[in-house]
Write a structure and sequence with these properties.
alpha+beta
Length: 262
């Protein structure tokens, strides 16, 4: 804000009617008195305009019609020697004007209305109040102090040991980074032995499938018959075979036994 105000001239106050008087030399330090100025005989009348550029205010006395500058009083401090109030009235002031050659003179300025005099006084007070605030902010601003040069000098380098960083990331005791979900949220791993969200539960075991039977949902759901067992041979058949075998070769059996018949 202060930098912007340095670039242009701000208008603080404009009063269309002002009277200018010659001020006699002050004989003592008791202050100026407007009663000594011959108030019924002003030396000049015109328009007063207060402008500001940076921290300096300017009281400009201009012609009402053409705007030609009659006199100008730079004010760098208020209250101060550049603007003084008289001791016997609130409508009159003494200002110190200055020309382009640096010559200075004191003249009296008066307003027809007390409200105009009040506005003149307040405009100067507000401007220098703003100047004081800007000065305090500049002292508190850390950017106004010396700045640290953190840049690399010519030829200066920096070394990073990436191998040790990788070892530290894989070392025991250091948790692995968790994957990030949508929106940057960290996803927790599923509990051990559990199933993840959205997974189907395992199907119960079905019955055994016979060889050659196609696998279908209906077959898996039906109870399957067990394979028939081979029929056992009856006991009579076993004895019959034995009898036939013994009866088919009687002579051979008798000859082989060696028994003697009586």
């Amino acid at each position: 804000m202060a930098a912007e105000r340095e670039d242009y001239e701000a208008v603080l106050c404009v009063k269309p009617a002002v009277l200018v008087y010659r001020v006699p030399p002050r004989a003592s330090n008791r202050g100026y008195r407007a009663a000594e100025w011959q108030l019924d005989q002003p030396a000049w009348s015109g328009r007063l305009r207060i402008t500001a550029r940076g921290s300096t205010a300017f009281i400009r006395l201009e012609d009402k019609t053409s705007g030609e500058l009659f006199a100008q009083a730079p004010v760098e401090q208020f209250p101060g020697i550049a603007v003084e109030s008289v001791t016997d009235s609130s409508r009159y002031f003494v200002i110190r004007v200055e020309d382009e050659n640096g010559r200075r003179a004191f003249i009296g300025v008066g307003f027809m209305d007390r409200g105009d005099a009040f506005d003149f006084n307040v405009a100067l007070q507000d401007h220098f109040k703003w100047v004081k605030q800007q000065s305090e902010l500049a002292r508190q601003d850390p950017d106004q102090g010396p700045k640290l040069d953190l840049g690399f000098k010519e030829g200066q380098t920096i070394k990073l040991n990436i191998a040790n960083m990788k070892k530290k990331e894989g070392a025991p005791g250091n948790p692995r980074p968790r994957p990030a979900g949508p929106g940057g949220l960290t996803l927790l791993p599923p509990p051990p032995g559990g199933r993840g969200c959205g997974e189907r539960p395992p199907c119960p075991p079905g019955p055994a499938r016979l060889p050659g039977t196609p696998i279908t949902d209906s077959v898996l759901s039906w109870p399957q018959p067990s394979a028939p067992a081979a029929p056992a041979a009856p006991a009579a058949d076993a004895w019959g075979d034995f009898a036939k075998a013994s009866g088919s070769t009687p002579n051979q059996t008798q000859g082989n036994t060696g028994w003697v018949q009586f």
